[in-house]
Amino acid sequence: MGSVTATVAPSTTPNVILWFRTFRAITASGFRRYSTYRQAAVAGIVTNVVFGFLRCYVLLAVAGGAGAAAGYDRRQLATFVWVGQGLLTVILLWGWTELADRIRTGDITGDLLRPVNPVTAYLATDLGRAGYAALARLVPPALVGPLFFDVYVPTRWSTLPLAVGAVTAAVVLCFACRYLVNATAYWLTDVRGPLILWTLGSGVLAGLYFPLRFLPEAVYVPLWIATPFPSLLQTPLDVLVERDPLPVQVALVAVQLGWAVLLLAACRLVQRRAERRLVVQGG
């Protein structure tokens, strides 16, 4: 009888482990990189605290003598403001143009030569940045607020892990949105127009300036489902202040995750399309 040779497919486990190690290393590098900007962090904390007082007094005035507005009591509104001020830098709605700048100068070619996809590399760096911001920019406003205002303390044990998941999903989702805005530089070169539209729209539609539930239900419900903006800031804050029953909270976080997966896939698609027609600007 002739011998039979068995062919064994190479295991993909080492590749997966290597991918996670690389991702972790880039994330740690992002944490160290942003932790060097200590003076900027202190200045940002002062700004967030000042605007925290302004926003808190405005929303408490809206609550007025009734003690509540749009289903939020005064303590929930105070927590909404102060934690929101800290999350603003963690989620980072604005201020990131690194990809667009590298496309404009042609430095993006260096990113394309690396073995890690640019979307993956920038996402890992952004998660490291968010980790540092959670310590340096979220904690101070969250500690200052209770010194001057009555704040809401969650009563359900599930709220804290669900809120952490909602914030993490918001960070990933916001990164995907910013990446897509920056990626327009592959075709436009000058991205000031898309950046201005993103800055104006994201602040209002994400719930930064006021809770979206202040709007009529016929407006904010379709906005919540049909656009990713409320999932950036409104959802994590509503989960934290327990604005809704637990099943509704879980559904809102599921919507977040759905948008995050969809827009990350869009980032990969746009990146592949851009690489096919990339024209290096400036040499």
UniProtKB/TrEMBL annotation:
It holds the Pfam family ABC2_membrane_6. Keywords: Membrane, Transmembrane, Transmembrane helix. The chain crosses the membrane at residues 40-65, 77-96, 160-181, 193-212, 246-267. InterPro entries: ABC-2_transporter-like. It comes from the Bacteria. This is ABC transporter permease.
